[in-house]
Design goal:
By secondary structure, the protein is an all-alpha fold. The chain is built from 4 helices and no strands.
Length: 91
């Protein structure tokens, strides 16, 4: 009797392992292809340039937020803008 027969791997572990392999394969495929959907980039830009810009102005002027809360939101906004630039460059 082998170890696997005595202690079979739970089905959920096999499913998770397969899922991780599939996700890794998809990520690898996207990285290797290196193509960028320009319509998606344009849509992303429009959303950030309207919604995010208005949101950060609201955050900056919101008297109910503490300075710490505003800093956290500013960091989120800066991260989003950085992602936007990376996305434009196709990274």
């Amino acid at each position: 009797m082998t170890i696997r027969e005595r202690n079979p791997e739970p089905e959920s572990e096999r499913v998770w392992r397969l899922l991780l392999v599939l996700i890794a394969g998809c990520i690898l495929a996207f990285l290797l292809l290196g193509c960028v959907n320009t319509r998606l980039v344009d849509s992303y830009d429009q959303t950030i340039d309207t919604v995010a810009e208005e949101w950060i102005l609201y955050v900056r002027n919101d008297a109910s937020l503490t300075d710490s809360q505003k800093r956290v939101r500013e960091l989120h906004y800066a991260t989003l803008k950085g992602m936007q630039e990376d996305f434009k460059r196709g990274k």
